[in-house]
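haha ok so turns out i had the wrong file open the whole time. this is the CORRECT one, sorry everyone. sequence first:
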Amino acid sequence: MLAILMPLAGYMIIKYYSKNAVIMPRKYYEPDSVITSTSGGKTVTDTVWHKVKNISFTNQLGKKVSLDDLKGKIIVLDFFFTRCPTICPGLARSMKKLQTSFVSNDNIVQFISVSIDPEHDSVQQLRKFADRYKANHDTWWFVTGDKKEIYDFALHEIKANVADPGVDTAFIHTENFFVLDSNRIVRGFYNGFDSVQQAKLVRDIPILMLEKDRKAPTVFSDFIPLLPLIFIGIGFVVIVTYIISRKKDKN
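then structure:
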């Protein structure tokens, strides 16, 4: 009994304590929909979270870029304009610190600063602003584009006015950095001037990289349900081995 129960108990203990071993950043906005379906007499609920739509920009190098170019990456995004005298330079310094934090593994995260003043922020202005903060042009884009598309993106996709209710929707200027996971779901917003929130952001990025799509098939997803049977099998083998050894000792 001990040979069977101990491995099984070990499995249950590991399963219980590992369930919340890593606390994932939550999904901040309300889901787009909740789908309920019934299969084999069992009701399954699937939450469909808001996925930020693709948008195309022109970056500080004059290159056409889009969110679709960043598959598999975490995105850290803010809104700025190059003529801003106070807030934007401070946010840029904070973003530069974030970029430096991931200099050795910059393939996991992309930083994007979106101009909210595209009429004045030309490619040359963006390049000058980026160079002022010694930005790595590959992993930190300063981008411009169509003003209406940018504002629709900020309000309806990133939902900057929800994260910061005091923001002026006619001129979107917020101190927040917005984080999108590899599925482009907003997983948090962090004040760019708060050192505690910035430290949390640095910790949350690699945690989000650990998260996998629970619908994606993996070897382990098929293997884990068999663990109780495997542990019981191990226990059975131990018992049989013990009985055989006892018989040999008697003989």
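Residues 219 and 245 are 36 Å apart (CA to CA).
again sry for the mixup
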